[in-house]
Structure formats: C-alpha cells, structure tokens
Amino acid sequence: MNLGTLFSGPDMTSALMPEWILLLGIIAMFVVPNLGDGTFRLPIPGKSIRVPYFIGGKRFSITSDPRIPAGIAGFTLLAAFVTAFMSQMIDSTVGMGIACLDASGTVHTDCSIDQQFILKVDAFSRTFEMIFYAALLIGLLANTDRMPGTALNRIALKPHKDEIVETRRLKKLLNNRRQVDFHLLLLMVALGMSIVALSTNLFMLFIGLEIASLASYVMISFLKETKTGPEAGLKYFIVGSVSSAIGLYGISLLYLWSGSVNHGTDANPLYCAPTLSLTGSCGLASDWAAMNGIETLPLLGLGFMLVAFGFKVSAVPFHFATPDAYSGASGPVAGVLSTASKAMGFLALMRVLIGITLGEDGNEWYILIGVVAAITMTWGNIAALGSRNPKRMLAYSSVAHAGYILAGIAAIGAIGPGSGSELIATAIIFHLAVLVSFKFGAFLVVSLLECEGRGHELEHYHGLARRDPIIAISMLIFMLALAGVPPLSGFLSKLMMVNGIISSTIGDASGADLSTTLGGLSWVFWLAILIFVNSALSVFYYLRLVVVMFFEDTDRPVRLSRAPMLRIAIMLCTMGAVVFGFGVLADALIEAATDAAAALFS
C-alpha cells in the first residue's frame, strides 16, 4: 500500500474516519504544544536572513498552556466516538455500515468477495470502538483532577523556603511537564484498541494489541513519585511482554500450518485445502473447518495465543500481575485497565475462538475455556474476600468478572453457531459495555480518596457517608451493580448471560422427569449455576465496603477533595449504572449489542 492509495478515495476516508481522527490528534499532540517563534537562518554569505518555521523558540502563550494537551486528547476522543456512533447507530451511510479494507488499501462494501482483507468495519467493530472511546474519555475527564495542568501564571518561578509550599510548587511544575506525555499515551491506547477492533488479520490484531499494551504499561507507572507505581508497571510489563511473545509464536505456528493469518476465506477457491504450503490457503476459518481430526500444529498455535489473551483478560493462572498493576496505577488508569483493556482482550479472544475455530461439529477448546472460567470466577471471588485493600478487591473482582465472560464463551463453543450463541455473545458485549459505568465508577471513587493520600485501606472508607453522602451513594450503586442486584445494569448483564446459557443448553424439557432432564444437560449448564453461586459469594465483600461507609465512625470529619471533573465522571458512571439497567437506554444498548453479535457470527 503506497501513500497515494492510503489517502485516495472517499470510501477509505469515511470507512476509517475515527482512526483518521485519532491519527490527526496524535500528530496535533506532537505539533501544537511545540509551536513558537522559532526561526532558521538562510545559508547566504554576508546575509542574516531568518525565516520563521514556528517550531521551537519561545512558545506562544496559547500553545504553552499545560491544559492544551488534555483539550486536544478530549476533543479527539469525543470526535472519534461521535463519528463511530453516527456511522453505526444513526445512519449506516454516514461513514460505512460495513466495509472491508484489503492488503492493497482498497475499500470494498462486499466483504464476501475473494480478497485478503486486513480490516473490517461493521457493527461488531464499531460497538467495541465506542466502548473503548467512552472508557478513555471518562479516564481523561477524571485524570484532569488527579494530574492537573496549572496555568503558568499561577506557579511561582522561584524556589520557596517553606518545604510544604516548595513541594506543592514542584508538583505543579511536574504535572505541567508531563501533560503531553500522558495524553499522547492515552491516544496511542485508543489507536491500538481501534486496530484490534477492526482487524481481520492476526498479525494486524497483534500490532494493535501491542500498541495499546505498551502505552498502558507506561501509564501504570506514570506517577513515578508514588511507592507502588513503578513496581506495578515493571511487573505488568515483564509478564505482558512474555505473554505477547508466546502469543506471537502461536500466530507464527498458525501461519506455518495454514499459510494465512486472515480469519475467513481469502484466496482462490480452487486451492481451498489445508496444507503446510505457504500458498493456496482459504484462510484460517476455512482451513480449521476442513481440518481432519486432531492436528498438533494448529492446536499448539491456538494454545499459545490463548496464553496471551488470558493475560489480557486476567484469567487464572495468568492474573498474578493484575492486582499489583491495578493497585499501583492511579484510579483513572486502573479504571481503563479494568474496562477498555479487558474489553480489548475479550474482543481478540472472540475474533479467534468464534471467528476462526467455531465449528458445527465440536470445538476442541470449549472444555479448556470452561474449566478456566470456573477456576477464574471462583478464585477471583475467594481472593477478593480476603482483601482489605479496596483497590485490590476491585482487581480480584475484575478477575471474577473475566470468569463470567469466559463461561459465556465456553457455552458458545459447546453450542456451536446459532441463535443461542448469538444470544450469549449479545450478553457478553452488553456486559463489557456496562462495565464502563459501574466498574470504572468504583475505581474513580477510590481515586477521589487518593487525592488526599488515602483509599488503599478499608479503614479509609469509614464514615464516608457522613463525609460525602453523594459519593457514598454512588459507591453503593457501583457495589450493588457489581454484585448483580436488580434493577441495575450489572443485574441485567448477568441475567442475560445466565439466561442465554441455560436456554441454549437445557432445550425443551417438557414432559421429562427431573432425573432425565438433569442427566441430559450439557455440563456448560453448571457454569451458569456457578455464576449464580459466585455472584452470591461476591455480595459479602461488596457489602462489607458499604457497611463501613454508612455505619462506621470516621476520624476525618472533613469533606472529600473538591475535584470537580472527577466528581462529574463519577456522576456519569452512576447514571450509566442505573439507566442501562432498564428502560429505553437499556433497550438501545441491547439492540446495539445484538447487532454487534450478529456481525461477529456473519
């Protein structure tokens, strides 16, 4: 693909409009804060002619404002979200309802033709893009108070003798200097996640995963003056790098076996047969369907890829770095990891397990995924029971929620393609969407306490209802939503998941006795029961936090920090946890998730 092809044609521009906006935002993040009165001298002997080129020199007062990077990142993410929303929800002719980009850079509106597609724009990819952008926007809004940019005329330029005043001055200077870095990383995460959402090519998917992951590793340890941040970032980086290397090796094995890294049929149909040759492949999905019996190479490749995706979604036993990473990162970054990053991991997992390996006659992987799901949800809840650090408790809760979603994917593998699988996929997508409200909101309440140097011990939440009733009520809603209490969105998402598994596995049991019915059940049915049991188990540690907020005395009667932007983000999450549980907005989100699931299976 040359540059002429890349920038030519309205189809290319409209199909990838959110990605173009992100790319322009990244470029603006490099250029705008560096605009100034810089000049260079023309190399003419005896002359001193200087030509302005506006980069460097003394920066203009507007472009030197430390609050500019947050504005650029916020406008970019909002514009990308609106464009993705318009292209899918309002009118499919705005942007592209469905479009595929081949290796030459040509956009096709018919994705079933004989081409090697690397990107696909449809309801599935657009829905996940909106989940990513919404989570990153909330994180950006909350981080405005956690790492505020201060106007230059409000900072003393000379050192102060008072140690406390000098510490505050240096903190303001430090926050100002790293505004561009943080918001650039945020946009890089968004771009990487968008590539993952659109990719129909495993190497393209891997590139997107690494762009987002490498930026997130830095964001975890971004507040390097904290005690836990650098250590958490280093641990997450080491474990993530190893898992990525294993996943890449798995992709290489699949390419060696199939000669393709594309999901669907992508070559001349005359050569549609699995072969060790590096040419003449029908794509991974076709080759997998035509596989005779058990073949070591593709199964080994799939297993290695599941290791990488298991780390991304915090599945047991690949979750060990997750509690440290979440508790070491700032609240907004931990919220991004627990929502957008987790959704990205499950998106990649569904692309592979459903888009490539899902077959009519048995799926070798669903038993393994089911076992991992059962262990993950149980271990996550048991570990959360013993944690007195609310941030680590939320991290283990995130592990448990990964188990719930893995149970749904295992059920899809057991059932195979059909309406039942689409119903479960709808529940998974809906659950990942509403997690942005109550899971992110819980981390933001923790972040509000972090503004005063607290929030990492259960005792810090004593009497929170007396100190700040509105924030305490919001935390109550988040905890109830995480526990799956009606009528909140967490209850609806779990209900859809369990209902989809049960209705698809129990079938028509009318006229049969109980023993016959139970004997004929698929073992996946018991995963739904295990979700119920674990949800009941989780109520204890969620309500434990509620009890100390409302019924324990506090030694700090003062109100929590003002942090207006952080409070606005908490209120937005609170409304989301409520309005997506019932009513018109819940129906609209379910409809969007249904369209996304249908696009995945198509």
Can you walk me through this structure?
With 602 residues, this protein is mostly helical. It has helices spanning 3-7, 10-15, 17-31, 68-90, 123-146, 163-177, 179-198, 202-220, 229-258, 284-289, 296-313, 322-328, 331-353, 366-385, 390-415, 419-450, 464-467, 469-483, 489-506, 514-519, 525-551, 564-579, 584-601, and strands spanning 39-41, 50-52, 99-102, 107-108, 117-121. It starts with a helix and ends with a helix. The model is unreliable at 1-8, 92-96 and 265-281 (pLDDT under 50). It is built from 23 helices and 5 strands. α16 (419-450) runs antiparallel to α22. It is globular, with a radius of gyration of 25 Å. The chain has one domain (3-147, 178-601). It has a 3-stranded antiparallel beta sheet with strand order 4-3-5. The protein has a two-stranded antiparallel ribbon with strand order 1-2. A hairpin with a 4-residue loop joins β3 (99-102) and β4.
Strand order of the largest sheet: 4-3-5
How many DSSP helices? 23
Query: What structural category characterises the helix and strand content?
Result: mainly alpha
Shape: globular
Measured distance between first and last alpha carbons: 27 Å
What helical percentage do the residues reach? 55-70%
Beta content: under 5%
- What does the average pLDDT come to? 82
List the helices and strands in order: HHHEEHEEEHHHHHHHHHHHHHHHHHHH
Main β-sheet: number of strands, strand sense, barrel status? 3 strands, antiparallel
Radius of gyration: 25 Å
Poorly predicted runs of 5 or more residues: 1-8, 92-96, 265-281
Give me the count of strands: 5
| Number of separate domains | 1
